[in-house]
């Protein structure tokens, strides 16, 4: 079975899992369902904060925050099974183009608001590997045991594209005696603690709590990306050049060049204009509250809310015009 086929099955299974019971769809005026992140992850807390902001300003609506996954959320929103979804901007770009992990173009996605910037790519290795650069992986044909997080997520796609920029494939890694895992961050950190994993590559806001805590008892390095690799990934995924500042982690005392993406809130194109207007207004009116929900939201501001790489929902666009947002 091809990787694309496996990813399609994962997305399809997720969409079925989160479909309303009995396949019945409730009117958006009666219920708004937001697909967020996995249980206990950062997105779970962030999406619940977003849902609470909506509840504060839309008491006549039944606002539900449900478990979701970055890539699958686009399929859920496009199909109308949920009305809102959190997702990385790069994944929307792939969904609109019908590129991996999507088997066709998803045409029913519209933007509501930016949620947070700087979801930065981390290439974390243990000190025991002796690796100080990504180039060395190919030069040494290093038998790397690496977790690239969920298949078909931005984390996995960013990992694959970064390795590709250095002329490395998953097949190469396995031919050198390594192994590629597709596991969530928490179990990946456990594997690393047990000495069964050498590296984790993930796009996440920083400082990432699991990494910070694990560094109290383990030795890590963050590998910097070359200018050429960053440019390659940005051209492919629509991400942008960034850095993880020195001192963000105890094991990184210099700036780490990398790339980042933004997390955004999307809606189904069929959402009523007035409802989308109210969603955007609710977020705008609760910015101070959202800043307290999670550190990733601390920099969300009114000017950045409509700055998205996909068409805004007409209702959200009308709200931003009225507020004078650029």
Can you put this structure into words, describing what you see?
The chain has 13 helices and 10 strands. It is of the alpha/beta class and 326 residues long. Strand 1 (31-35), helix 2 (42-57) and strand 2 (62-66) form a beta-alpha-beta unit. The longest helix has 16 residues, at 42-57. It starts with a helix and ends with a helix.
Task: Give the quaternary arrangement of the chains.
Answer: single chain
The string of secondary-structure elements, in order, is HEHEHEHEHEHHEHEHEHEEHHH
Strand content: 15-25%
Q: Could you tell me how far the N terminus lies from the C terminus, measured between alpha carbons in angstroms?
A: 46 Å
Write the layout of secondary structure elements.
Blueprint lengths: L2 H15 L13 E5 L6 H16 L4 E5 L3 H10 L4 E5 H9 L11 E18 L8 H5 L5 E3 L6 H12 L4 H6 L3 E3 L3 H9 L5 E6 L4 H6 L5 E3 L4 H11 L2 E5 L11 E13 L4 H13 L1 H7 L20 H10 L3
Parallel strand pairs: 1-2, 1-3, 5-6, 5-7
Antiparallel strand pairs: 3-10, 4-7, 4-8, 4-10, 9-10
Helix pairs in contact: 1-3, 2-11, 6-10, 11-13
């Amino acid at each position: 079975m091809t990787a694309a086929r496996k990813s399609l099955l994962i997305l399809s299974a997720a969409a079925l899992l989160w479909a309303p019971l009995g396949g019945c769809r409730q009117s958006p005026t009666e219920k708004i369902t937001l697909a967020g992140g996995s249980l206990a992850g950062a997105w779970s807390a962030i999406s619940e904060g977003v849902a609470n902001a909506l509840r504060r300003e839309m008491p006549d609506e039944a606002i539900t925050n449900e478990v979701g996954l970055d890539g699958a959320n686009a399929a859920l929103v496009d199909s109308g099974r949920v009305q809102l979804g959190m997702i990385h901007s790069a994944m929307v770009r792939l969904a609109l183009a019908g590129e991996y992990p999507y088997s066709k173009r998803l045409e029913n996605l519209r933007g509501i608001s930016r949620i947070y910037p700087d979801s930065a790519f981390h290439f974390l290795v243990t000190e025991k590997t002796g690796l100080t650069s990504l180039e060395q992986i190919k030069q040494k044909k290093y038998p790397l045991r690496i977790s690239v997080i969920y298949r078909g997520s931005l984390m996995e796609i960013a990992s694959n594209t970064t390795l590709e920029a250095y002329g490395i494939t998953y097949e190469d890694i396995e031919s050198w005696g390594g192994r590629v895992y597709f596991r969530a961050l928490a179990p990946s950190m456990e594997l690393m603690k047990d000495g069964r994993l050498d590296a984790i590559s993930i796009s996440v806001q920083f400082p990432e709590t699991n990494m910070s805590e694990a560094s109290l008892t383990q030795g890590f390095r963050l590998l910097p990306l070359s200018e050429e690799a960053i440019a390659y990934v940005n051209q492919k995924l629509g991400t942008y050049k960034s850095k993880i500042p020195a001192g963000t982690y105890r094991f990184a005392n210099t700036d780490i060049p990398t790339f980042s993406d933004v997390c955004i809130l999307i809606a189904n194109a069929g959402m009523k204009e007035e409802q989308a207007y109210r969603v955007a207004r609710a977020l705008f009116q609760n910015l101070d509250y959202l800043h307290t929900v999670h550190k990733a939201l601390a920099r969300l501001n009114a000017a950045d809310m409509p700055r998205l790489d996909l068409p805004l929902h007409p209702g959200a666009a009308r709200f931003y015009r009225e507020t004078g947002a650029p």
